[in-house]
Amino acid sequence: MEGKPAANDSLFATTWVHVFEEDTAKGAVYRPEEDDIPLSRRPRQRIKLRPDGSASVFVPTADDRYMEEPATWSEERGAVVIHERGGTPPLRIVDHSPSRLIVQSEKR
User: Fold this and answer.
1) Alpha-carbon distance 67 to 81, whole Å?
2) Domain assignments of the chain as residue spans, ordered by start
């Protein structure tokens, strides 16, 4: 991923859903919410990025509802990095296309 994404980039066009069945050694796979994502008993984390540098990470709660965690994103060393406010390790988007994100969790 080269340079800061433009406001009309596909990165901002949707809410991204973790499709853990498709994870690879390169990272976790996220697809657009509108895709035909298989049903799962395991709740799926969601990410929403906005062109202004804000973001939301939707995490499942004990009763399977989602709680929105405010976050920010920035371009760092050629990748988009999402920083949650809860102190969890940042998420690094190492590759993206209109139909898929590859995300790595950074160790602290």
Assistant:
1) 20
2) 10-105
SS percent in the chain: helix, strand, coil, step 5: 5, 50, 45
2-6, 47-51, 63-67, 71-75: the lowest-pLDDT one: 2-6
d(CA 53, CA 71) in angstroms, rounded, equals 9
Percent share of the chain, pLDDT over 90: 60
Indicate if the alpha-carbon torsion angle 44, 80, 106, 90 is positive or negative: negative
- Tokens of residue 75, six digits: 């371009």
Q: Read off the DSSP letter of residue 51.
A: T
What global pTM score does this model have? 0.86
Q: How far apart are CA 78 and CA 98, in angstroms?
A: 18
| 10-105 carries CATH number 3.90.1200 | no
